[in-house]
Amino acid sequence: MTANESWSLPMERYPDPACSYAFEDDRAVVQASNEQFGRISGLSAGDPLADGFGEELPVLGDQPSFDRSGRCWVRDPDHRERRYLVRIIAPENDQPGHLVFNAVDQERESQNVGVDRVASVLSHDLRNPLDVARARLRAGRELESEEHFDHVEQAHDRMERIIQDVLTLARGEDVVNPEEVVDLDAVVRNAWQTVETNGATLDVVEDLPEATADRDRVTRLFENLFRNAVEHGPPETEEEHITISVGRLPDGLFVADDGVGIPPENRERVFEPGFSSDDHGTGLGLAIVARIVDLHGWSVRVTDSETGGARFEIVGLDPE
Known about the structure:
This protein is of the alpha+beta class.
């Protein structure tokens, strides 16, 4: 959609905030808007958009959060559980630009994955095990080694788990069945074997508890935490590799690393679907962690590790 395409619905009848704007003296100025836009921004015709959103569009009170498409998110100041996906349609020729807001309920959003996020997972997370399977299949044929075919099978299993992760976000309870008493120590060590560690070290500092859980989903939970630590650790050198520690808490466990840590302002946002501090990330890894935790009736929080890295604490496990 461009600025010179027709507006199919009168702005005053659009159910969510919307405005048109143009540049005057190098400033973006509101040309027209509906009542909803005035409520969340405090702006009316003739006001600079910067007065309501800051110099960089848009967000009320916080720094802008853009996804890879150039869209951005704005929270409703009167309903903090609600936020808006904002499309910025730039002015073109003599036609004004538009800001078009679409309300997204936070609870509903956490249970659904947009088509663009599904595409990101299919193109990013599935590529690695698919490449492994292809390479191992080629080596197995050339060397006639059963070991390579075992790795092909493991790669296929991993792809199946990734597909289930998308369903975990999209369908929730339908794909998580916490009905088995699981040895979390064994789950952690098994998850570690499936992650590309890049020289990282796992340190299980004490025996972990058993808990009623869905083994497959909890395995994926630890895989994602390990992968997050490895991918966001310090730049790899011959002398420096990240160490990931897993230990027991009175009502749960922690996963900590000695990497660069997570800034306090991002510790809640890292669990939002689509949020990533890495330009190449899908923003789904920790969102899946939070979803699996929630569907087990547990809770997860982020803090600093003793070395200044990230520490994820999962509590409420009610160990067996």
